[in-house]
Amino acid sequence: MTSSDSKTHFANVASAFHAQSQDNNRLDLLNEKGTSSLAGWFLGPMGENEAVMHDMVRKAVSANAGARREYGEQFRDPVYVTDEIKASKEYKNTIDALEVQLDHMLHALHGSIPLSSYRNQSHMYWDCTMPGFVGYFAAMLYNQNNVAAEASPVTTLLEIEVGKDLARMLGYTVPETDPIPDGTIVPWAHITCDGSVANAESMWAARNLTYLPVSLANAIKLEPSMAAAKDFTVPLVQGGSAKLIELDNWTLMNLGVDTVIDMSPRLQTECGISSDTLKGILDKYSVQNIGLTDMHRTYIKDVTQLPVIMAPSTRHYSWPKGAALLGLGANHVLDTHVNLDGRMKIDDLRKKIEDCYQNRRPILEVVAVLGTTEESSVDPLADIVALREEYRKKGMEFTIHVDGAWGGYFASILRKPRFPDDPDGQQGVQEHTPSMVMSDYVTRQYEALPHADTQTVDPHKAGFIPYPAGALCYRNGAMRDLIAFTAPVVFHGGVDPTVGVYGIEGSKPGAAAAGVYLSHAIIRPDQSGYGKLLGKCIFNSKRFYAQLLALAGPDECFKIVPFQRLPAEKQGKSQAEIAKQLALICNEIVPRENDDLVEYLATHPDAQEVFREMGSDQNIVTYSLNFRTADGWNTDIALANDFNTAMFQALSIGTYDGGVVPKQPMFVTSSSFGVADYGQEFVDAFGARLSLPPTQGAAINFLISTTQDPWVTATEKGNWLPMVLEAFKQTALEQTKKIVKDNGLRPWNGS
């Protein structure tokens, strides 16, 4: 699809959607106010909203059955499942078997991690929102496939609307006027199965964008049908302009992002080249069709190296996987070093970009991770944006991608509500969990989101939506035309509002979009909804971090070392100042209930600053344990790793155990800091804090706790974190005794 076709197509989409939303404004999230009660957003850690969920599911089933009847009755269609069939032995046996097998499956599911429990402080999942569950369940009964509008006449519209909502949350401006003024850059987002697919799609789009000018320049030179474009000029990123066919390949591969996206419509309007001609040309010349090998062998002999992607060493494994699938090769993802806070080192990024510049090696995209999945670190996006501006002046361009699969929804903390809070709303004790804004550093990075060209965000992570529901958002929505394949079997041209021709997936469940839609309608992705919810999770994560610091006293046989250093440590303060800050956290912050703590922080600005800055950039706390014996702290790296592995095994579910409800008093997850990914200096610095010697290439194992629970510090019985972490402490004591005994060591008996 050319950009001209795309423009017509989206006008049709907008028209169809507008007509439907006029009849039913519940399909217009722009006009949804949302709600304020956290107690009504989830089924509840103890199933408190079971009756509500029963009613909602029953209503969804009844609505689906009613729709079946309503359609059939207008034609007087006969029933098949008659009373006579229902009375038959075969029918009854079938229904009985269904119930028996369901009972077996439900029993087996009892052995799952209790995701909604206060004690689930493990991976990046917690409970899903009730509207997320209900929306998914209701739409699932209709089994709509968002690959094509005819297979998903309702859920396609929901996905389009969800995409606009995600774009606004991520900092892009979504036009609200109809019609949209010419020349307006319109963002666009769609649902994917997960963040890995979204990341790969962004890489795919960046590759096609980089090579498109080369394709068009050669077509203009070689094809008579493109002769009208021989004087076609384009702006250069360093300033000025030039004829497209007079540029060398290096410059062609470094034209501005929006310049490249706008080339196809400009060729049509300024040069009179038809969309059909352009489509035929791109079929013959684009990297999408001829592949990287033929592109370089035939047209780009002077640029001898394939392009690269740059990402921090903390990046998700989907990046090398995507590069391999794209034909670049996993080794073309260049890892940048991270600092002791797990954030990308901007000086190392600069060094790698400069090396590419000097060697005329194109960069497809630079990836900033906003919320790494193990360290909960936020990369310096604002500095990356500034660095790109610096290199644009030298004639070098690359896209910026934000991998916010985990952290994207935290942008809602910065978004003002479209509507004010209900002044009559009453909040009881269950609602009264304080919320926390992000640190100044993190806020600065989120304020730079509008400068990113593409962003990944996973509703099924911090959006509390059922799997699968990832998403990719484009700053300039026309960028996705660069990867569109149109299959006549499922797509019939611009008259169909569809999202299925974009992206990697074919068939995908419309139910996923419906789950996100209904959740967003109830819990708005701004400060009134998801911002409040995630702010409470950040607050609780800081309380978890503080409680963890206080758990192992000076006389204990084990110690806990969070990866996230104390603010005083980050600032390079003296040992005395670090000890003073630790005492403040353990003696003043940890013991207080929420109301008392909030009052204390309000009257003690220094303590408030410590509380705001301590812990992770978001709400994942990473930490490792070590033990000591009568001879002092353990210095055997292998034994330290064994100790942390034993803690993980004791506080997680391994294999299926027959459907028995878990007995573990808490859940955590685990990973390791490997030298290949993090560097020896990084690993040794963390090891030193654990009293371990340099690792000589060995990794260090650690545990991870994600506090995605907004209620754990505000239960009916107050702050419940001390009870949860007391179970962790007892487990640590048990595992210390075991590892000391198993290795013939002398036990620690206190000071």
Reported for the largest beta sheet, the result is: 7 strands, mixed
- Average predicted confidence as pLDDT: 92
What is the alpha-carbon Rg in Å? 28 Å
- Give helix % range: 40-55%
Give the helix/strand class: alpha/beta
Head-to-tail CA distance between termini: 74 Å
State the assembly state of the protein chains. single chain
Strand content: 5-15%
Total E-strand runs: 14
The DSSP helix count reads: 26
**Spans where pLDDT lies below 50 across 5 or more residues:** 1-22, 423-430, 487-495
The global form is globular
Strand order of the largest sheet: 1-9-8-7-6-4-5
Task: Give a verbal description of the structure.
- This protein is 44% helix and 9% strand.
- By secondary structure, the chain is α/β, with parallel strands linked by helices.
- Helix 2 (50-73) runs parallel beside helix 5, helix 6 crosses helix 17 and helix 21 crosses helix 22.
- It is globular and about 90 Å long.
- Residues 1-22, 423-430 and 487-495 have low confidence and may be disordered.
